[in-house]
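Example record used in the benchmark description.
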Amino acid sequence: MAIYAYAKCKSVLSRSRLPGLEYTFNPYVGCGHGCLYCYVPDLFRGRFPKWPGRVEVKEGALEKLISEIERLEPGVVGISTSTDPYQPVEADLKIVRGALRIFREAEFPVSIQTKSPLVLRDLDILRGMDAEVGFTITSPRSEFREKFEPGAPDPSSRLLALEGLSKAGIRTWIFYGPIIPGFNDAEEEIRAIVGVAARTHSKVLYDRINLKPLVRLRLKGAIPEERVREISLFYFGGLYRKIEKCCREQGVPCSPAF
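Model output (structure tokens):
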């Protein structure tokens, strides 16, 4: 269970080096989902000794956004790149909802990535702007979520939300990752995820697990150390070709995430 606290922020809108994004908007530091494979704690060394532990809410985020956006040229904003914008606290604080209104008014396109069906709450705003929504779907199985994503919404709710957004005319995509060999790379899982992408006219972006030091430590608490070593030596080329073949067969566009 995460503890939430306010923290002062110097900026909420940053330049992005990620493909397809000019800016990033991260209203929170840390994430209540507590996914074992998340490498964000490695990027904030020493700040998250426990995970999920403490989540910081950027104080005055919307006021800061208004002042920053006035000085910038419109460009695609990634919401969010180092946290889930629709983690549990967003249901009460509605920072992302307020930010979407600001981006719509300033005519900044947005690209949202989340694991939460809470994004459907903001469908009324998303319909009136240039927006796309991507769902992280690591596996269609609840067992995977229970083991590796203890605080995240169940995959079934993500799939329903993705379908709801697509039916509402919002552009959608699926982030299939991180792929953890032996846990979410079975052919039936690949076919299930690609099948959802076909039904929702979504692109599939795929990515391997990034075994940074803190990720390795958390994984060793959930699976045998020998399995972690095997994962670190796994050759992903064959798996990527399998994903690409499945996507071609179902007419789904796909590409590596990075």
